[in-house]
Amino acid sequence: MSTLTDRYLAATLRSVPAERRDEIATELRASIEDMIEDRSGGGQHTATAEREVLTELGNPDLLASRYADRRLQLIGPAYYLVWLRLLKLLLSFIPAIVGTVVVAVEVAQGDGFGAIGPGIVAAMQVAVQIAFWLTLTFAVIERAQPDPTMPGWTVDQLPDVPTHRDVSLAETVATVAMLALAIGYLPLQHFQSWVHDTDGGNIPILAPTLWTFWLPALIVVLAASVVFEIVKYRIGRWNWPLFGVKGLLDVAFAVPVAWLALSDRLLNPALADRLTWLADQDNRDTLGVVIALSAAGVVVWGLIDSALKTRRQTR
């Protein structure tokens, strides 16, 4: 169980340069302990003395800015922390929502992968607009009321000491995003691919007959992989049961893909009408071998990487 001092140090150190954290942690902890000892020596209860000392030191973000010699004057000291917290909150989800909606609309209009660009541009534009108008609003408020009556900081606002995670949020988000794109592409290619017939009609990349079983099965495996990534992030580290599940999911996806490619059942036979090199059986066989080897390579690499991470994180 972390103490108030531990939580105060964690809240302070997260905002100071990494190279100075050990030095500042040692110095600040010693100062806090000395101040508590002085108060305890006068007969005050240690827990009460600790709360009073930390309250006297004040908001850890302000203390960190002094240690880092960083001025909080983008908006002004009175409003800076509120502005920064609100800006981070709005940027964390609004641009992503707008970008996703734009991509969905563009896809519905038949743009296919060309919809990704407008979605990214729209998200960036929204992010810039949020930053501009929020900053302008706080600048006006500060000039209209330069000395606001803001709620005082108390030690009850201290966050818990963050637990160490071997599985990062960025890695999880990137993996889930790639899986989601793969899940979305399987049905999308059936209606909007980059190959068209002489009349401009769509030619699916994958054989339409696969929709009777194999493509839905692969989508289920990919969806299960998304759930696995979320569970792995919640656990926070690799373990051998997770390694086993990861291996099963990878094999469950790669083996059918490799078998379908080697048996010339993966790609749409109609592609040969537009891509003349696919009309040759030897070329199709060669492509099938390349796809199968690529699938096997991805599985082997994934197993090696997962095994190394599991071994390192279970020691």
Main β sheet profile: none
Helix/strand structural class: mainly alpha
Relative strand content: under 5%
Span from first to last CA? Answer: 23 Å
Mean pLDDT: 84
Oligomer: single chain
- Total count of helical runs of at least 4 residues: 11
Large-scale geometry: elongated
- Approximately how much helix is present in the residues? 55-70%
Which spans have pLDDT < 50 for at least 5 consecutive residues? none
- What radius of gyration results from the CA coordinates? 28 Å
Q: How are helices and strands ordered from N to C? A: HHHHHHHHHHH
- The overall strand count is 0
What does this structure look like?
- There is one protein chain.
- By secondary structure, the chain is mainly α.
- It is built from 11 helices and no strands.
- It has helices at 4-13, 21-41, 46-57, 60-67, 80-91, 94-108, 116-144, 169-191, 214-235, 240-262, 281-313.
- The two termini are 23 Å apart.
- The relative contact order is 0.07.
What's the topology here?
Elements: H1 4-13, H2 21-41, H3 46-57, H4 60-67, H5 80-91, H6 94-108, H7 116-144, H8 169-191, H9 214-235, H10 240-262, H11 281-313
Helix pairs in contact: 1-4, 2-3, 5-7, 6-7, 8-9, 9-10, 10-11
Task: Please summarize what this structure is.
This protein has 315 residues and is an all-alpha fold. The protein has helices at 4-13, 21-41, 46-57, 60-67, 80-91, 94-108, 116-144, 169-191, 214-235, 240-262, 281-313.
